[in-house]
Specification:
Blueprint lengths: L1 E6 L1 H6 L7 E6 L3 H14 L3 H48 L31 E8 L4 E2 L6 E2 L4 E7 L5 E4 L11 H6 L1
Antiparallel strand pairs: 1-2, 3-6, 4-5, 6-7
Length: about 190
């Protein structure tokens, strides 16, 4: 059995002089741990109780340091995520003609007449092709600024540049030189 002096928390509040009084804690430890504690105590030439006290104090100090570091790292990650989220929102708004992103849960903005910023020439410039999609949430046409309701068919414009995306309605796409039906008949 190992005896550990400890400070009584209740005495801290009552009298500052009582806070310095040590108390004895009793604990059961495995025989292997007892032998290891005795070996360390002999090597340090101190009583076993001092070794146990020192180990407990070091463990608590280490927990405090690790907890503070982990909390700091979590705060940094949260700030980095918030910064990245804001950057993506700004980028998305710029791609959608300076309009805020539309989600299925919030109110939808009314389409405005300033669809395309005057500095951009053709938003479809550099496009390779389009693929039809069914919208899960409301979206805004990247060319006209018109509202594209959830469940409707829209088109994702594909570009050679990685990461460049544009969602449009059918009415803004150029006419095919050869309709798909004619190609299917061949």
């Amino acid at each position: 059995m190992c005896y550990i002096p400890a400070v009584d928390d209740a005495s801290d509040k009552k009298n500052p002089q009582d806070a310095r009084k040590e108390r004895v804690l009793h604990t059961r430890v495995p025989a292997v741990l007892e032998q290891e504690l005795k070996r360390v105590a002999n090597a340090w030439r101190v009583p076993v109780s001092n070794v146990v006290r020192a180990l407990l104090e070091d463990a608590l100090d280490t927990l405090d340091v690790v907890g503070a570091k982990a909390e700091g790292e979590l705060r940094e990650v949260a700030e980095m995520l918030a910064s990245e989220r804001n950057r993506l929102r700004r980028k998305s708004s710029e791609r959608l003609g300076k309009r805020p992103a539309v989600t299925g849960s919030g109110p939808t903005p009314a389409p405005s007449e300033d669809h395309v910023s005057p500095s951009s020439s053709d938003p479809l410039a550099g496009a390779v092709g389009v693929t039809p999609i069914t919208l899960v949430h409301d979206a805004v046409c990247g060319v006209t600024g018109d509202l594209l309701p959830a469940g409707s068919e829209a088109y994702m414009v594909l570009f050679r540049e990685p990461g460049r995306q544009l969602i449009t309605g059918r009415d803004v796409l150029p006419e095919a030189s050869t309709p798909n039906q004619e190609k299917a008949d061949d």
